[in-house]
Structures are given as C-alpha cells and as structure tokens.
Design goal:
CATH class: Alpha Beta
CATH superfamily: Peptide deformylase
Number of domains: 1
Helix content: 25-40%
Structural class: alpha+beta
Distance between the termini: 25 Å
CATH architecture: Alpha-Beta Complex
Largest sheet: 5 strands, antiparallel
Order of helices and strands: EHEEHEEEEEHHE
Number of strands: 9
Number of helices: 4
C-alpha cells in the first residue's frame, strides 16, 4: 500500500525516534508499504518519520545511483546491491574530509542543495530479522545512510545549510508546509486545514 509522505513542517519529522523490538505490530507489512511508497515516489531512501511513525526504521535502495557513469566501477557495484532495511541504527564513527553532494528529500519536494558530510561511516543496525550488523560505508552509500539516519534523529538536510541558504529557501519551505506544492506522489501536509 502506498502511504502519504509527510511534508516539511510536520512535528513528527523533528522527533528523535524510539527503538523498536521484533514484536513491533505488523512490521513486515510496514516495511513492505514503505518500499512501495519509496519506489512510487522515485526515492532512494525512506525513513519511518516520513510516513508519520517516530520509530528507528528506514529503508534504502541506492541502485538508481549505480547508473551514474561518473562513479568508479567499484562504487557502482556497491550501490547496485545497496538495498537494505535498517532498524535501530547507530553511527559509531564518521571519518574523512567533508564533501558536498546535491541532496533532496521526499518530504521537501523541489528543494535541492549541496550538503557537506563526511565520506566514511561505521554503523551498527539490525536487519528486518533483527540480526545485528556492524558495517563500514563510504562514498554515496555512506551519504544516503547519513541522510536517512538524520531523519530518525529528527534532523533534515536543510538544517545543515548555511544561514544564507536557509533564508533563500525559507519561502519554499513555508509553501511546502502549507501544501502549496505539486509533488508526483501522495503527501500529507501539516498546515492544511481540513476541508480545503
């Protein structure tokens, strides 16, 4: 089932999410719905807060990035198979010199900005069967992970912009929160009055 994606301005996007256990109700169905929602919106990641749930769960399928011819064969091979469910994820370490990449977000349609992040992360998480994993990610895989991880910490990519860039997109963000946006997928707007 395709779920509406929560738009910028909704308080759920600012919550630090809570951990879940294997007995979380209808978890497999939720993950399946999140995947369908992400693919429908042509996203490469989707976090639970973006569908209104303040839990530490997100999904990633970075395979669309594998088609980028500017990447090395090694990077493309990693991204082609980078399709995972992350439950109760933690970043253990971030390393390297920050680099810029143009990011967007399904909750903030039509806004893209260069965001600086460190290129390498050591992470710990549970998969959908609650098996624990520790991995090192780098490059675009690390970046997509960091973006989705920020969501479960109540952080948006726009928070990482300079104050000047924030001022330049302020009106766009206000319009998104009021539903004055045309997205190609279902959205839920926080400041839309019922009946309008």
């Amino acid at each position: 089932m395709i779920l509406p994606i929560v738009a910028y301005g909704d308080p759920v996007l600012r919550k630090e999410c809570t951990e879940i256990t294997a007995d979380y109700p209808n978890l497999k169905e939720l993950i399946s719905n999140m995947k369908e929602t992400m693919y429908n919106a042509s996203g490469v990641g989707l976090a639970a807060p973006q569908i209104g749930k303040a839990i530490r769960l997100f999904i990633i399928d970075a395979s669309p990035f594998a088609e980028d011819e500017d990447l090395s064969d090694e990077d493309r091979a990693v991204l082609k198979t980078f399709n995972k469910v992350f439950i109760n994820a933690q970043i253990l370490e971030e390393e390297g010199d920050e680099w810029a990449f143009n990011e967007g977000c399904l909750s903030i349609p039509d806004v893209r900005q260069d965001v600086y992040r460190q290129p390498k992360v050591t992470i710990e998480y549970q998969d959908e069967d609650f098996k624990k994993h520790t991995e090192v990610l780098d490059g675009l895989a690390a970046r997509v992970f960091q973006h989705e991880y920020d969501h479960i910490e109540g952080v948006l990519f726009t928070d990482k912009l300079s104050s000047l860039k924030k001022r330049l997109i302020k009106k766009k963000l206000e319009n998104i929160s009021k539903g004055k946006i045309n997205a190609d997928y279902r959205m839920r707007f926080p400041n839309l009055k019922k009946g309008k």
